[in-house]
Amino acid sequence: MAEAETAQEFFEQRQGDWPPRSADAAMYTRGRAVSVVSDEDRQDIRQSLVGDEEAYARIIGRYQPKIAAQMWRFSRDAAVVEELVQEAFVEAYLSLGKFKGRAPLLHWLRKIATRVGYRYWRKRTREQGRREALARRADELVPPQGTSPSEAGEYLHTLLAQLPVEDRLVLTLHYFEARDTREIAERMGWTRSLVKVRAHRARKKLKTLLEEAGYGRQKPS
Fold it and tell me: Residue 27 forms beta bridges with which residues?
């Protein structure tokens, strides 16, 4: 194929190529059109979209070190970084058909990686808040004398089993799976208001069961 000398020739020569060509998909400098997506990436993306796993593996191989370095800003735990990198590339693969080629592939991958890292930070913050809330509630309850932590944990599950299914589920999702009200509502097909009401009622019922079992509130010293 002869080298394109004008933007029009550049687009016409590549008609039907992936990704779609537009004024945003190429730079036009000094009378010559220059693609912002490398031919190597373009070919591997096209093959990935038709199910070629090796093509996407090549994309991962090219950009994984850069994405891993970016994820290092979100966590200093190597295992967490590895999970975040994997999540970013999975999300990128599922969204690959939406990539329009308006920027280099690495720029697009970095945007996805940033979203993944941000979600990780938000989730970690929520989980920390819930752990602190559970710790405060635990401090307010005095287990029967001689009860070990493992025994108390097992008994808590026994008490949860006495709650109605909806109450047990909302507490389990909220405290043990660290789901927020929006996530619980989406999973259960409830409104967020209903989730909040059920969670409030379920906590009251569980508190009553705990106190009846001898887990009473501490008396002020």
Answer: 34
Q: Is CATH 3.40.50.300 correct for 38-140?
A: no
Where would I find the H helices in the chain?
Answer: 7-13, 39-48, 53-71, 78-94, 105-140, 149-160, 165-171, 181-188, 192-212
The DSSP annotation for 139-161 comes to HHEEPPTT--HHHHHHHHHHHHT
Packing angle, helices 105-140 and 53-71, rounded to 10 = 60
d(CA 114, CA 102): 18
- As to burial, measured by CB atoms within 10 angstroms (0-12 exposed, 13-18 middle, 19+ buried), residue 26 is buried
SS3 88: helix
Q: What is the pLDDT of residues 118-168, one digit of tens each?
A: 888 888 877 777 666 665 655 555 455 555 666 666 667 777 878 888 888
| Architecture of the domain delimited by 141-213 | Orthogonal Bundle (1.10)
Domain ranges of the chain: 1-35, 38-140, 141-213
Tens-digit pLDDT profile for residues 70-126:
999 888 899 999 999 999 999 999 999 999 898 999 999 999 999 999 888 888 877
CA distances from 14 to 23, 134, 209 (A): 13, 60, 70
Q: What is the pTM of this model?
A: 0.52
